[in-house]
Amino acid sequence: MSGVVCRAASVALTGLEGTTVMVESAVSQQLPGIAIIGLPDTALAEAKLRVRTATAQVGLPLSDRFHTINLSPASLPKHGSGFDLAIALAALAASRHLPPEGLESVAHLGELALDGGLRRPAGLLSLASAARALGFRRVMVPEECGEEAALVPGIEVVAVRDLGSAVAWYRGELDRGRIVLPGAEPSGTGANRDGFHGTQGAAVPDMRDVIGQPEAVEAMVIAAAGRHHLSLLGPPGAGKTLLATRLPALLPPLTDDAALEASSIASLGGSTVTELVRHPPFESPHHTASAVSIIGGGQGSEVRPGAITRACHGVLFLDEAPEFPRMVLDALRQPLETGRIEIHRSRLRTVLPARVQLVLAANPCPCGNAGSPDTALRCRCTPRARTSYQQRISGPLSDRIDVRLTLHRVSRVLLEEPEEHRPSSEELQARVIAARASAAERWRGARWSVNADVPGTSLRSGPFQLPRGDTAVLDQALARGALTLRGYDRALRVAWTIADLAGRDRPRRAEVAQALVLRGGDFG
Question: What's the rounded Cα separation, in Å, for the pair 392 and 378?
């Protein structure tokens, strides 16, 4: 039996990026034992005990020799118990319990129980999606999560109850495994990561709850239609959080590709996904959150997604933004431009998606009452304290905000406004979807489909360059230094979004002027 090398395939994740791992098993004439090499972490190194016990429990004991298990590529750090199934099958093939043919063409994903049962590995949907991207056409997973793996289109899923069933499948006993059709999307409760827990289609906060802020609601629609970043400044009780938590309800449902990516991120974060995420995610971390919890990272070779990745294709809401550490806020600057996070460690590098819509909310000063007309709520902060508080959000980050709203408390007269006179989220979402459809049609064939992603050069030159007469107000602001070139481009993008909402073929002077006002408008 010496010299026989059997191989079974699996997948290693670094962030959402997958790498094919070939598990090699060789038997040598030494005292019985198992050694796992190839940079395993502690949980993976312990697989030798799980494998030897599980194989004996299902009546398939390993040969009474020494098994060397190599995880190739050996230079890639590997972590977790998701390699157990591949290790067990490679070792059993080397022990002549099953034919080795076919093990290399199937991605095996599963953790072994001591009785030979199979359990769901962490990030199963992410692993199955990575397997498809790596060229695998079939994956073998535990029976309990066959439907989850089948959410990935274009890949066949073999769901097996235990290790014995997996071996029987390779022996040709087809009744011991179950094929789950790809692309199946069961209904029911799942990782409904729009920020509001429950079943898909459950009621979410409605924009109709917002009273007496029609200009602010319209600005939220503009931000949603173009996926523009937004800041809300105002005293406590002005409605900042109320508006921000209703923004996801205005966004269109996720496309198939975006839904799969958002679901994979939820799976990587530890959620068991039973249906694709169709609602835009909503993340609202506390202001004591660390940079790693926002940006992502982890220890050793394991990379965990941060809030900006979990909010991908949705909304990242930072309430009480000036209370966040300056380092955390400034760490957002690069991903807001590129739509991705690059994480570098001494032994690994990975890229995580971070295509989010950022919403910042802040009080005007530490006490929150600056600008209040009520003498009983007079601000007691010094001018220096107010300036220092507002400067906690750096200029470069602020320059990346497209729409800036200043809110005021609602008067009692406005509280009497009938609810039916206020637009619902469903009505506003219909406008957003129509505007995004216009933008997608205009940018057909380009790498972008929403106005927030359009490069400034495409708006300042070529067929989409606006006449000088229409951009005069922006040109003047740029000339006197009131606007950066980045701000110029962002104002143009907002102007195109306003035109899309109005059903116009391009923005005119009025839309450009409105976009400039939105970069620092006062809505009371």
Answer: 23
